[in-house]
Amino acid sequence: MPLEFELCPGRPIGGKHPCFIIAEIGQNHQGDLEIAKKMIKMAKDCGADCAKFQKCELEYKFNKKALQRPYTSKNSWGKTYGEHKRHLEFSHNQYRELQKYAAEVGIFFTASGTDEMAVEFLHELNVPFFKVASADANNFPYLEKAAKKGRPMVVSSGMQSMKTMRRVYKTVKEHNQNFTILQCTSAYPLEAEDVNLRVIAEYQKEFPDIPIGYSGHESGISISVSAVALGAKVIERHVTLDKTWKGTDHKASLIPSELAELVRSVRLVERALGSGVKQMLPCEKACHDKLGKSVVAKVKIPKGTVLTLDMLAVKVAEPMGVPAEDIFQLVGKTVTEEVEEDNSVLPEVVDSYGKKAEC
């Protein structure tokens, strides 16, 4: 399989395609549909490719005792964890409304399905791709069922080992060729020493036939931009309208100005990465014409002289002569015209210069 595929209609990732930037709204919408819409529009205005949410069917994701557990955190939206999660969970119809709104503003829309029934709903919703949260990366029955749906997949790898991720790759690959794995550390906010960007290179070696990306929870944008420089083809970052809002994700999220700067910086880095071919570029011609060095005569060289190295020097010369890097090729060759001291040694006055030796 090639190292690229279409993640969303008309939007391939991998290869030389631009990095796909996911604005992870998650549940930072505070359970308010209008705030969610503002965040979708913000993601679009800042240049992100996709606005992403988190969908769960509570009774399938949590057992009864987990939902009944008292939740007294300052981030709580209810007396129990179940009440808290219900406040933040949009209904199926609300998801349809958000999807329609995203289409109107012109941004791709999807969600992490955090249980098998949520995946079924998202499949019915016809999202362009499934996002697998880190907490489900080792949920192999879930992975297999999601992969069999045939939609492209983005799999985060927080809290997992390389051994587990090899198994993830094998499980998904058996049923679905179009997926990407994101390096991720599940801490909010994430400290720099725990990011481990070098895993991107390790994933590229372990899984050379899929694109690799990065899902970040750090403060600021520098680390995410660095991930792109290391070859990340997908970047996912949490976003918010206010970092002081109630919720554990807001402090690790980007406000609109930061998201816009992330997009600008990623696109700048992509331009700067170039082709990988090292050569003198057209933009360097002016500097080369002004400062490029070539070979000159250290002494007066009569016509018919066989050149030795002590007759030659390298200087910025007018006009330009034989390029500086070719000085050793001149040794042993004969000049066909006299060259005055400190004058350029021109290619046309050196017999056989530039010709390959006969075997």
Protein model, in words:
With 359 residues, this protein is α/β, with parallel strands linked by helices. The chain has two domains: 4-273, TIM Barrel, CATH 3.20.20.70; 282-349, Type Iii Antifreeze Protein Isoform Hplc 12, CATH 3.90.1210. The protein has 13 helices and twelve strands. It has an eight-stranded parallel sheet with strand order 5-4-3-10-9-8-7-6. The protein has a two-stranded antiparallel sheet with strand order 1-2. Strand 9 (212-216), helix 10 and strand 10 form a beta-alpha-beta unit. The longest helix is centred in the last third of the chain and has 18 residues, at 256-273. The two termini are 44 Å apart. 35% of the residues are buried.
CATH superfamily of the largest domain: Aldolase class I
Instruction: Supply the helix-strand structural class.
Output: alpha/beta
The Cα radius of gyration reads 30 Å
Q: Could you say which overall geometry the principal axes of the C-alpha atoms support?
A: elongated
Q: Please, what is the oligomeric state?
A: single chain
Give the helices and strands as they follow along the chain: EEEHEHHHHEHEHEHEHEHEHHEEH
Strand content: 15-25%
Number of helices: 13
The low-pLDDT segments are: none
